[in-house]
Amino acid sequence: MSDRTAVGRFQGASASPLVSVVVGAALLIAVLWPLGELVSSAAITQVDREVIEQSVEIRVPLLNSFMHFLTFLGGALFVTLVLGAAGVIVYIVERQKRWPIFLAWTIVGSVGLDNLIKMLVDRPRPDFQRLTDVTGSAFPSGHSSTAAALFLALAFLLTRRMNGGRTWVWGVAVVLACLVAVSRVYLGAHWPTDVIGGLALGGCWTGVMAQATAAWASSEGGEGPEG
Description:
Elements: H1 3-39, H2 42-57, H3 61-72, H4 76-94, H5 98-121, H6 142-159, H7 166-186, H8 192-219
Helix pairs in contact: 1-5, 1-8, 3-7, 4-5, 4-6, 5-6, 5-8, 6-7, 6-8, 7-8
């Protein structure tokens, strides 16, 4: 094999993770941007409003406290603490830098895409009987996208080498992300379609980062993700 051929193959392998990330981000923006415009229509917003009004009717102090706890699971403080701890643990166990980087960029990318799409869509928040402080526009839900990215990324790492019980781990991750999403609607911070968009964003972006990490592992001649 000539030196030129070897260099070309190395450059192609090294570029593949970046290509996966860029293409994945572009596709998510291309899908969620027009979707955000669609769900901002008066007809869909009216359906969203009816759902929130129904959630207001079932509010009681104990349930309010529980929903505040759930929404905390998608907030910056909790996500940062879990991300830091998980990053350290996975590096100690695996001794490979790709896994902490996978975790970090799954969250960072989810937050960045969420803010970008929010800016492009600029959907107003629900404007009545809100039980939590909010900033920025509505679509997609940042708490929902971050929760989905965090819990699914953790499930991905936990199940890589598991022989059994994978369904339970993935099931818990999905349920936790969905509960965070429900809490955002219950507290009046988001329309239902916002949290659906957020869950889609976080889940799909985690898949993109998993594929990029697999490509990185292949380019280094290492072991790719399992499961």
